[in-house]
Amino acid sequence: MLFQWYPGHMTKTKRMMQENIKLIDVVIELVDARVPLSSKNPDIDQIAGSKPRIILINKYDLADPNHTREWEEYYKNKGFYTSLLNSKQAKEVDKVKNLIFEACKERIERNKRRGMINKPIRAMIVGIPNVGKSTFINSIAKKASAKTGNKPGVTKGKQWIRINKDIELLDTPGILWPKFEDQTVGLRLALIGSIKDEILQSYELAIRLIEFLKDKYPSYLEKRYEISLEGSEEIILEDIARRRGCVIKGGELDLDKAANLLLDEFRNGKLGRITLELPEGQD
């Protein structure tokens, strides 16, 4: 499979970010804790320029805790203000406000010296599709300010959201980048649901997921589906189909249905807490 998805609205969004960056004090990028590097858009580095940067490692409740702290240290060592985040937990979201103040400390002090006491900090929220930006914004704003959905492409345009008298957020639609140089990155993004499912082959995607899980998390498959991992990935998917009653007329196995079931249960954390990539040099 060739993984690529870059519809026209992403080009418009990137242009909008470039036009608005001059208004921004800090750039906050959400990445997915299951793929903290593959879900980081390299174009954001160019757009942000010298602005202070915050990396929020979101959905860590779905990722392997043995690796999540390694990723937190990885980004801190790269010079980012970094925090783990479950954007559905209000108390975790509140700590991001302190991180914003920390990242903008110099700007706040400079404004005070100029007599601009009540000037709010302006933060741009960026990230790939389906990384949880809208849920995060609704949690930090304590109201439904942004549309949410467990699929890419829910946020369609920019909007300014006032959090309090001290912080304003610019919400932006999720964007990828025009070409994945490494197709493994595309595979990982497809697995977490950041590439539109309609353009993917769920059967092939499920086979690749089984291949990974057999190697790194074999007990998760065995326990969840009560199956043996002997045999090929194709045979394992057939066993999952049997165990879950994925059949069509005449008793034939519905492998596409089984594939979609496996992908959904991985994405929702029902298989267990899984990380698909490790920091450089640890694979």
Describe the model.
It is a single chain. By secondary structure, this protein is an alpha/beta fold. It has 11 helices and 6 strands. It has helices at residues 8-20, 43-48, 65-77, 90-103, 105-113, 133-141, 183-192, 202-216, 218-225, 233-243, 255-267; strands at residues 26-32, 53-58, 81-85, 121-127, 159-162, 167-171. A 6-stranded mixed beta sheet has the order 3-2-1-4-6-5, with helices on both faces. Helix 8 packs across helix 9 and helix 8 (202-216) packs across helix 11. It has 2 domains: 8-171, P-loop containing nucleotide triphosphate hydrolases (Rossmann fold, 3-Layer(aba) Sandwich); 201-267, Conserved Hypothetical Protein Ylqf, Chain: A, domain 2 (Orthogonal Bundle). The protein starts with 7 loop residues before the first helix and ends in a 16-residue tail after the last helix. Helices cover 43% and strands 12% of the residues. Mean pLDDT is 89; it is low at 151-155.
List descriptors:
283 residues; alpha/beta; Rossmann fold; Conserved Hypothetical Protein Ylqf, Chain: A, domain 2; six-stranded mixed β-sheet; 11 helices; 6 strands; 43% helix; elongated
